[in-house]
Design a protein that fits this description.
single chain, four-stranded mixed beta sheet, 3 helices, 4 strands
């Protein structure tokens, strides 16, 4: 669970990110979860966009993916959301406590 200070730090880092995944009419599937899991392991912080054709909203997608991937939802704004999961082996981001 992220503290408000850590969440704030991650939000400021996420403003520069471009979405690297899109959720479309197929919704969230197992293949996407495997790819997101690998990406979170490598990058720790990712931005995802829900297209208009998506069967789920950005908030719903963020909650579902957070639960499936063991990640924290940093922020949800409009059709985009940011996930964070600390990598044990490949630590990229050091958060202030």
């Amino acid at each position: 669970m992220l503290t408000s200070k850590q969440r704030s730090q991650l939000k400021s880092m996420a403003t520069e990110l471009q979405p690297i995944f899109q959720i479309g009419k197929g919704g969230i599937n197992d293949n996407m979860c495997v790819q997101l899991d690998d990406t979170l392991e490598a990058r720790e912080l990712i931005k995802i966009k829900c297209l208009e054709t998506s069967p789920v909203t950005a908030r719903e997608a963020a909650e579902q993916l957070s639960e499936r991937l063991g990640a924290d939802v940093v922020i949800v704004i409009g059709t985009k959301f940011v996930l964070y999961r600390e990598s044990e082996d490949n630590k990229k981001i050091i958060l202030v406590k």
